[in-house]
Structure formats: C-alpha cells, structure tokens
Amino acid sequence: EYQKEFPDIPIGYSGHESGISISVAAVALGAKVIERHITLDKKAKGSDHEASLVHSELAELVRSIRLVERALGSGIKQMLPCEKACHDKVTVFSEEMQ
C-alpha cells in the first residue's frame, strides 16, 4: 500500500520484534530498507535490547534477505542454461504425445 501511495520512494521496515522472520517477510513483500537494532547483550538494561539482534542473528538476517532477493528474481522470465536440457526433453515428449 505504501508503494502505491509513494511510487518514487523506497519503502522500508523498522522491526522491533524478536527474531528475523518478520523482517525477511517485509523484504518479500517489497521493503527495500530494513532497520533493526543490534546489541551485545539481550539482557542489558533498556527497552530495545530484548528485541535487538545479536551478531549471529544479524548475519542470518542478511543471508536470509539475500536468499529472498535471489528467489524473487528480476521479474524477467527467461530460460537459464541449466534448464535447457529438461525443457528440450519435455518439448520432445509433448510433441510425441500429440
């Protein structure tokens, strides 16, 4: 909805939940900027530490976002070289069935 309202502005997500799943989902839904707090100790004093990410969670967030970005692709449909053999086999089979 934000992207429809502001088509020329990158839409972001500011997460204050525990874990990384919701931030990754935001990327899958179109977020281009992710803001998350990081901490050295989730039990430290302060309201944000518990929902902040430690180093390993931040690394996993980045890996997961990059995976989602690759999975979403460019939107341009084209056959990859690794798909050609399977495509050719299916095409021949399909022609033989007609």
Automatic annotation (TrEMBL):
Q: Which Pfam families match?
A: NeuB
Q: Give the organism's phylogenetic lineage.
A: Eukaryota, Metazoa, Chordata, Craniata, Vertebrata
Q: Which residues cross the membrane?
A: none
InterPro entries annotated for this entry?
A: Aldolase_TIM, PseI-like, PseI/NeuA/B-like_N
Q: Where is the PseI/NeuA/B-like domain?
A: 2-77
What protein am I looking at? PseI/NeuA/B-like domain-containing protein
